[in-house]
Design brief:
1% strand, 367 residues, globular, two-stranded antiparallel sheet, mainly alpha, 2 strands
């Protein structure tokens, strides 16, 4: 676990380690972290690859945000969680350089704010789509692929620069490894601002947006599907389809918001409390609680693919088409790697694969 405790220096216990876990807790947490990292890596890797190989998916602005979320989770479980697993197994002892400790903590500070700010951008997009589903009063769409790409890049740049502030000098002292423990010397001001600006405030705004979405959905429910005698203007089939699609999309993102909030709020709460109270509060919080709550936060990275993609039958069909294409290529090659089929059959197979991808094109949340 990242030992980011403001001005409080970590101290090793009598056994020469930072953590004092029981063997049962130590190894159970290590196994849980490994399972979470494995599931999250495979799931988010599939999401990223599916968007990359499918041109129709790349053209959807919402999928640009989904790709950013999946890529952020992929970096988290690839570059951050493995060091947490090592820290649990070694009871907090850091066996790498101070530069590696610095890079590890900085990567953590980049990926988590990127996820929550991207989620806020998706929520704004859902709100605008639902408030004016047919874009009657605009010459162009509120969110295009180009705009979504610009927003995603800006979010990544902001998170990167904010994470670099302690490295550029906003810290309590210069040491990153103290008594064999990876420790980043954040100031209380930086830790509080990071928690408020990069987590609490975006989540509160997102919750406010979804209250507005709920109110809009209730009003439009009466307009589209209310009592026919009370509807002043009959709605076309196209309008009803767009409305239903936007409602399903809003429900999908709302589930994601609840999952993100539930997974990260416990660890964020104890981080803010321990930072404001200082060493007295920190000593009263068992070390096991911090490791457990941080694991819940990482668990969100494993949940995201199932909440945003794998619950969609069309997405599963697209992934199935990709797997079928890979199996066909493997079967078509002999032990020496040479093709055992004729060129015409290979062309037919490729054409069928392209048709299958086109048939099962999916827009993750705009289904």
């Amino acid at each position: 676990m990242n030992n980011n405790t403001g001005e409080i220096k970590p101290a090793a216990n009598t056994s020469g380690t930072f953590f004092d876990f029981s063997p049962s807790f130590q190894y159970s947490m290590a196994v849980c972290h490994m399972l979470i990292a494995l599931i999250a890596f495979v799931g988010n890797f599939i999401v990223c690859c599916t968007i990359i190989v499918n041109r129709s998916l790349r053209s959807n602005p919402t999928n640009t945000f989904i790709f950013s979320l999946a890529f952020s989770d992929l970096l988290t479980v690839s570059l951050v969680v493995p060091f947490d697993i090592e820290s649990i197994i070694l009871l907090g002892v850091w066996r790498h350089s101070g530069e590696m400790c610095e890079a590890w903590t900085t990567m953590y500070l980049i990926t988590v704010p990127t996820s929550i700010l991207t989620l806020l951008a998706v929520s704004v997009d859902r709100y605008k789509s639902l408030s004016d589903p047919l874009n009657r009063f605009r010459r162009c769409r509120f969110m295009t692929r180009k705009k979504a790409l610009i927003v995603s890049v800006v979010i990544w740049i902001y998170s990167f620069l904010f994470a670099l502030l302690p490295i550029m000098g906003w810290r309590t002292h210069d040491k990153f490894v103290f008594q064999g423990v990876c420790y980043f010397p954040f100031t209380k001001t930086y830790t509080t601002l990071s928690s408020v600006i990069n987590f609490i405030l975006p989540l509160l705004i997102t919750c406010g947006i979804y209250i507005k979405i709920y109110l809009i959905a209730r009003s439009q429910q009466n307009i589209f599907y209310g009592d026919a005698s009370r509807i002043s203007k009959p709605r076309s089939t196209e309008e009803k389809k767009v409305y239903s699609r936007n409602i399903r999309a809003a429900k999908t993102i709302s589930i994601f918001v609840v999952a993100f909030f539930s997974c990260w709020i416990p660890f964020s709460f104890i981080s803010v409390v321990s930072n404001l109270c200082g060493s007295q509060c920190l000593k009263k919080i068992p070390q096991e609680v911090g490791v457990l709550f941080l694991m819940f936060g990482y668990f969100n990275s494993a949940l995201n693919p199932f909440l945003l993609a794998f619950r969609n039958s069309k997405f599963k069909a697209t992934v199935s088409a990709l797997m079928q294409s890979l199996r066909s290529r493997a079967v078509a090659k002999g032990p020496n790697g040479r093709s055992t089929r004729q060129a015409d059959s290979s062309s037919i197979r490729k054409r069928k694969t392209r048709q299958l991808f086109k048939k099962h094109t999916v827009y993750f949340v705009n289904k």
